[in-house]
């Protein structure tokens, strides 16, 4: 029996998530991963690397709870929000029996994580405006334990209507978890559902330090939920999910000074987003610029594949969304620095439509 044959069948068939770094490229303008464009400096204050770290570092948990407006017992910290996705599936879904549900176009890790664990996937396509198709979701809930709703949605950039999420929470009360992925919520903080936790025991909120906090390289995410959910996730999480340096920097980023700096970065990105949107709308190769509540813009081009390759060859790396349902002709562009935006605009102006 070969090594390949020793592996689980579902893993042999699995197509891994194509992260920005996995896709490669040799660019100097990286606008494909929704990262903050410049580095933020931190100095390590913890030198006890000879000791294992706390499983849930107290300073990180308390700082994040205060920032998010929840109780410390409603917070779990993990290796990025991606680990939060996996923990929820592991804790609540029986392989070969239960299912997760999501609504494409959306973030690809929900399906990859479920398939990895042998959990079925239900994909209820979003409506034409990329909002939830609630009647079809209702018809497909049998056996579903976890529903993922990304809001603001990646890659479309728009918020899911809060009333629709409320309807979904009522529809699934006592039957399934509704997981609101708020990776980009710092760009529209008024839209967070964290304040709904007391009302809905089946609500879970995912957060991250990768976007507005400019710490994608730290790999630090958070799951916000009621204590009953957190206690179950603690049963399946790794013994030491956060290294000491990660916990050290995360605690600093979540101190008042760090949060103020994050909000200044958000304000900066919103200005740059408006500049990029306005410039894109003037270009003949652009068919449509979609509204965004995030640090990226979804754009439909007249010849997206050719444009994607042309910019790639010039060292400008965007994210191709053509394979996602309803996103034919679409590329996603992270909002970078003014100089990076100008590189994109100048390259697109040179394109022959």
Provide an overview of this structure:
With 353 residues, this protein is α/β, with parallel strands linked by helices. It contains 13 helices and 13 strands. The strands form three sheets. The protein has a seven-stranded mixed β-sheet with strand order 2-8-7-6-5-3-4, with helices on both faces. β3, α6 and β4 form a beta-alpha-beta unit.
End-to-end Cα distance, whole Å, is: 54 Å
Summed over residues and divided by their number, the pLDDT gives a mean of 95
Low-confidence stretches: none
How large is the count of helical segments?
Answer: 13
Give me a quick take on this structure.
The protein is an alpha/beta fold and 353 residues long. The chain is built from 13 helices and 13 strands.
How are the SSEs placed, and which strands pair?
Blueprint: H1 3-6, H2 9-13, H3 20-23, E1 29-30, H4 58-68, E2 75-78, H5 80-92, E3 99-102, H6 109-116, E4 120-123, H7 134-139, E5 144-150, H8 162-172, E6 177-181, E7 203-208, E8 221-225, H9 227-234, H10 244-253, H11 256-280, E9 286-289, E10 296-301, H12 304-313, E11 316-317, E12 319-320, E13 330-334, H13 338-349
Parallel strand pairs: 1-11, 3-4, 3-5, 5-6, 6-7
Antiparallel strand pairs: 2-8, 7-8, 9-10, 10-13, 12-13
Helix pairs in contact: 4-10, 5-6, 11-13
List key phrases describing it.
single chain, 353 residues, seven-stranded mixed beta sheet, alpha/beta, 13 strands, four-stranded antiparallel beta sheet, 13 helices, globular
């Amino acid at each position: 029996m070969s090594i390949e044959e020793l592996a689980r069948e579902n893993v042999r068939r699995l197509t891994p998530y194509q992260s920005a770094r996995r896709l490669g490229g040799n660019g100097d303008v990286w606008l494909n991963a929704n990262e903050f464009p410049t580095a933020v400096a931190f100095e390590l204050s913890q030198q006890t690397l000879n000791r294992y770290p706390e499983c849930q570092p107290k300073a990180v948990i308390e700082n994040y709870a205060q920032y998010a407006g929840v109780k410390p017992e409603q917070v779990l910290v993990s290796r990025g929000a991606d680990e939060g996705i996996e923990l929820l599936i592991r804790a609540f879904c029986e392989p070969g029996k239960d299912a997760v549900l999501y609504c494409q176009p959306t973030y690809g890790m929900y399906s990859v994580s479920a398939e990895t664990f042998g959990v079925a996937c239900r994909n209820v396509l979003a409506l034409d405006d990329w909002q939830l198709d609630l009647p079809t979701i209702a018809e497909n809930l049998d056996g579903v334990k976890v529903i993922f709703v990304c809001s603001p949605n990646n890659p479309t950039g728009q918020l899911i209507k809060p009333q629709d999420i409320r309807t979904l929470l009522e529809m699934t009360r006592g039957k399934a978890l509704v997981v609101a992925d708020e990776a980009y919520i710092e760009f529209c903080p008024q839209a967070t559902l964290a304040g709904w936790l007391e009302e809905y025991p089946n609500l879970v909120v995912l957060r991250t330090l990768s976007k507005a906090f400019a710490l994608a390289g730290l790999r630090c995410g958070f799951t916000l939920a009621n204590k009953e959910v957190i206690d179950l996730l603690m049963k399946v999480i790794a013994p030491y999910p956060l290294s000491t340096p990660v916990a050290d920097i995360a605690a600093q980023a979540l101190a008042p000074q760090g949060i103020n700096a994050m909000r200044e970065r958000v304000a900066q990105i919103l200005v740059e987003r408006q500049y990029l949107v306005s410039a894109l709308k003037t270009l003949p190769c652009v068919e449509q610029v979609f509204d965004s509540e995030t640090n990226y813009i979804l754009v439909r081009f007249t010849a997206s594949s050719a444009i994607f390759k042309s910019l790639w060859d010039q060292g400008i790396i965007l994210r191709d969304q053509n394979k996602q349902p309803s996103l034919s002709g679409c590329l996603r562009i992270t909002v970078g620095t003014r100089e990076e935006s100008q590189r994109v605009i100048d390259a697109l102006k040179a394109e022959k439509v």
